[in-house]
Amino acid sequence: MKTQLTHRSTVQQWECDHMGHMNVRHYMAKFDDAAWSFFSMIGITNSYFKEQNAGVAAVDHHVTYKKELMPGDSVVIHTELALLEGKKFKMIHSMSNGVSGEVVATCELFGVHLDREKRCASDFPQNILDGARAALTPTDKIGL
After folding, report:
1. Rounded Cα distance, 56 and 43, in Å
2. What is the tens place of the pLDDT at every residue in 92-136?
3. Is residue 141 very low, low, confident or very high in pLDDT (cuts 50, 70, 90)?
4. How many helices (H) and strands (E) does the chain have?
5. What is the pLDDT of residue 143?
6. Domain 4-134 carries which CATH code?
């Protein structure tokens, strides 16, 4: 699977701030949408959360803003899974202008799998780890 298209949208006027470009909170919303889309691709779906009484939580984000997005700009996000082991995961999102292809922002997301009943981090089940193996980006490519 490797890098996957996980989000496509257009910047709306209401997503922009007083300087006329997309506000940082909307970058994060689009990255969050991409993360949920990617989770569903590897079997971590709403049904999974209900059946397993499980969840996921972001614990750290590293965002780099490279170029402004303006109202009407097309937005595309591709996501890589850099790590999924034990109870932790790392995704790397790359947001691009959908017309020019230029990368406008990146987001490294670190998170954990949760046992919602115990309210603590817990290991991913083996079937999720096995299913996600095909999605993992080789570590030599991402410098882990």
Report:
1. 13
2. 999 999 999 999 999 999 999 999 999 999 999 998 998 888 888
3. very low
4. 4, 6
5. 39
6. 3.10.129.10
Of residues 68, 80, 59, 88, the one with CA closest to residue 27: 68
Pick the closest to residue 109 from 85, 89, 87, 130 (CA basis). 89
Count of alpha carbons within 13 angstroms of residue 104, beta-carbon side: 25
Q: Which residues pair with 4 in a beta bridge?
A: 79
Rg (CA), the chain: 16
Provide φ and ψ at 17, rounded to 5°: -100, -170
Domain extents in the chain: 4-134
- The reported pLDDT for the residue numbered 135 is 81
The phi, psi pair for 16, rounded to 5°, reads -100, 155
